[in-house]
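Pilot study result, target chain (822 residues):
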Amino acid sequence: MRRLLLWIVRVFVGIAALAAACVGLVYYLAARSLPDYGAEVSVQANEVSAAVEIVRDTYAIPHIFGEQDEDVFFGLGYTHAQDRLWQMTMFRRTAQGRLSERFGESTVVIDGLLRRLDFYGAARDSVSAQSPEVQDALVAYSNGVNARLREINSRALGRGAPEFFLFSPDVAPWTPADSIAVMKLMGLQLSTHLTEEVTRARVALAVSPERVADIMPDSPGAVAVLDQFGRLFEGGPMPTDHAGLLDHPLSPLPKRGFGGASNAWAAAPHRSTSGGALLANDPHLELTAPSIWYLAHLGFPGGGAIGGTIPGIPTVFAGRNRDFAWGVTSAYVDEQDLFLEELNPDNPNEYRTPDGFEPFAAREEVILVQGGEARTITVQRTANGPVMPGAVYDLASVTPPGFAMSLGWTVFSRTDTTMTGAMSIMRSRSVDEAIEAGQNIVGPAQMLTMADEGRVAMQVIGHIPKRDINHETQGRLPSRGWVEANRWDGVFPYEDNPRFDDPDQDVVGNTNNQIIDAPFPRHVSFTWGDSQRVQRWQRLMEAREVHSRDSFIEAQLDTISVSARTLLPLVAKDLWFTSEPGAPGTPQRRRSEALELLANWNGEMNEHLPEPLIYSAWMRHLQNALIVDELGGPLASEFPHLEPLFIERVFRNIDGAAEWCDIVQSVATETCTEIASRSLDAALVWLDETYGGEVTNLRWGNAHQATHDHAVLGDLPVIGWLVNIRQSTSGGDQTLQRGQTSGEPEDPFLNTHSSGYRGVYDLGDPNGSVFINSTGQSGHPLSRHYDDQSALWRRGEYVPMSLDPDFARAGAVGVTKLVPLP
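Predicted structure:
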């Protein structure tokens, strides 16, 4: 027995030692790719004119200094590859449609979509369209990335990132086309009108035109159009399943409601305590680990720029230089149109045009699949744009038999000068220079908010398609592609883009709200990203005669929900204080306590309060109860977030919208008060089943956790715990501190789409500007800089940003020197 126990102990110790050795080996290999921020690295003599200095501050933010501008771009490429190589290669593979070479069958449908969009082909063609200076910058940036790749290979630096030990370590050299392709990929993640067109079409097939205007509020005049669209479906729509495309963690397609969003505002010098203009900006994108954003200071010899960059792209997208500050928000320009292409019944390889049937422009693409057979797909294109697969946003469900659907989009340009425009804006020294630079932006269209030493302004940058006044659907629904009036006639002149540049303006801002009220086709868009945040922003701006950096930060972090303040008095007006509390522990008591909490609530979506969770659960159940019987479950699921204007229309009975309250499938005629009451009870049951405990002990932050998840490793056991960053957060869908909720059946209130970057710039105080990244600079989970900014971001804190080289060097924790070989 003793011998047996001895052997058991020996085996146990041996297994433990082996496990420890394995863990140690894994750690050693993974740690090899941690960058040395204090190294001196030799680079090829023809790549830089002189030594490049990269000063890292406390949060590993690089301050890059060189003798020439190209040297600085080289340094940025090197630092991006030091900290975010895996992320950069994933961006590139996605844009190229080559994910399946690493991830197998699960990403074939994503690759098929990207091959059809042909971002990479357009990017290659667009390199020569850039200005000579930008072409030089793109080459220098690529050389910097490739210098890091050579260093990794020559010194065996852990393949450059831990992920490369799990997937193929082959990384092709970076090229200028890669950067332009990544920029186009960002445009896809910001897109909104494609999904809106499809959803509107599906709703139009389910309910009357009047009710479409309730759930998707729009300008009047589309009744005949909706009838005409419905008549195309004599054989009925063809349902499909987009789950494999939209729900995959690597899909670049945003779900409905998750396109780009942002806040930006600026105050002129006479409204600022420092005597210099102020500007605040917080772009909203999907939360990831690491963040999409990367903070950097580019110390050009003629004057630097500092702010938020995106790995793979050599420019500061939002930030400031010595004389000028700028921010970007999604302008919601309708730059996408779907076209119904009628197939020739005698030859499906032809489609109808204004001049008769013509053949598709077609090519074959081979998708290589890890562990599987290669796929050959036929990519078709019409004069309107590429033919889209039916799985994209359930396009098949709104494509009649005998038709295909193509997509027109400004981002498909083969002479896209957006990179030149972005770099020119970064180098601008005044509002006038930035406005002039904006004419090179093609897409995606953005609202550029600007401030210089004298004034503030806003300008829509990006191409706006020119549609015919007789366009059948005005771009709100798929239109017949062979009808000449439905086709684009180029784009409007840049001078016609909305501009807010009155010298007497003292405060300007945009929260993705409607910016212009012009008739079609000068309307810019029928769909806007916000109607609620802007009201709170106006209130905060008007509350002070002068503003400071701190008051702009306060506004950026504001968590008051105008929607809650507006909707609760409407929905609960006949429910408050109308019944006895009931015995402790009973559903009646919970209902009474919930209503009392909401009656005394000011609409603050604070993570420590129960009211935001009760309100959100109630509105979620209420909206679903209103729409599910008319739209059906699958279509109702396309509205996972609260639609405040819809609820308001219903409970104010605008144009008969209270009709939504009557359940079609029941004999009785339900009132809106009855539906509100039932929804509250259902919400309280759900809260009890999900969180338990007393109503007063609920906490919004427990449900509204920010999900900075690793797209590839985040779902793996143990590893997911190491790479994902989860935090309790305040805010919500309609607050200035926006934390867009997931809307998924499980965990519907997770914060999945938010301000990964925040910046506040004070041009009156050279060192008074601040910024923050939602995670950290590094993409390496073993680095302390992987998440060292995340706690600050959660608490609403910032780190200082300075253009002063001495200030950067004084606080340096490491200095890398890139020295050219003799």
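One observation from the pilot: The mean pLDDT is 92. A full batch analysis is planned for the follow-on phase.
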